[in-house]
IucA/IucC family C-terminal-domain containing protein (Natrinema soli), 362 residues
Amino acid sequence: GRVVPLPEYAQPATPQLNLRTVVPHDTERTADGPLPRCKLAIPVQTTNVVRTLSPNAVANGPQVTDIVRTIEERESLETLGLLTEPAATCYYPPGGPHSRGEGYDDARHLSGLLRTPPATHSFVTDDTVPVVASSLVADSPASGRPLVCDLIDRYGANREETSTADAALAFLERYASVVVPEQLLVLCTYGIALESHLQNSLIVFDREAARPEATLVRDLGGIRVHGGRLAEHGLSLELYPESDVDTDSEADLHRKLYYALFQNHLAELVATICDELGVDERTCWERIREQCERAFERIRAADAVPEARIRRDERALFAEPTVHKALTAMRLRGKRHEYVTSEVSNPLSPDGRQRIDFPDGT
């Protein structure tokens, strides 16, 4: 391959929360609608990896996009949307495809992909607004307290809740009802575990009532796909060599979704709500578990998934103890592509909830 620099070309762009994804500056809307986001490679390490963009992600993104679009259409998803990656490119050195070595490094440092912007999804209307979930646990510049607290106040006022605790629990229950069920459906039915942690999730809120209406999940390069479950529906992927996406292990699926959605996303939200508003953390997790149980019951009622599989997925989600991804240990051991885990109590299990400590020691 040959690389031709174009020094006279420049396009101002604004980075998003995840830094390497940028929005073209001052061109958010054109005659054809919002421009796509651009995910680029940067040689900077955050958490446990250097944030380049691998040829795996470039080759796999458009394929995975086709798969998730098919699933969205088949299932008529009502609360889960995927921000797809319809096009991508990178430098392909001679002798490839490369999965390691100098050729791989050259490819992952000169690459990019396009991601559809949230404003183009049907869930986002004039009456709704998408908010990156990470923002919910950050302090609002308007009030100086976490944004989720301001939203709970507005949500409770619209529902005429009589106490802050009641408003918070009602908000959390609604939140879980739009975040959890269809992600479990996609996992159980198609074998796709989304990496729906706080940074990858956008919650679509009703502007007036602050009511959670749907969730949008981005970053298809971080998902896990069980080929056997997917093949049952006539779907398959031809992935870049040595990709992390595919797995034949149900445990890999469970670790991916359960860590990202429950241990990262929902646990951080619950911790913030309880710390700021004095809500009973055990009750919060009871409400979330109820949403999980209802989701599995709906999957059973559809009669499209073997009962034994549903039970395995349930047992893994509610197991006590559960495993937790140890990012610091992964960084110290240099295990970028291998999980390092530790056992922790699972607040989705009755025994795990009883181990939750409160400031007063109860």
The first strand starts at residue 13 and ends at 15. The chain has a mean pLDDT of 91. Residues 128-317 form a domain with the Transferase(Phosphotransferase); domain 1 fold (CATH 1.10.510.40). DSSP finds twelve helices and 18 strands in the chain.
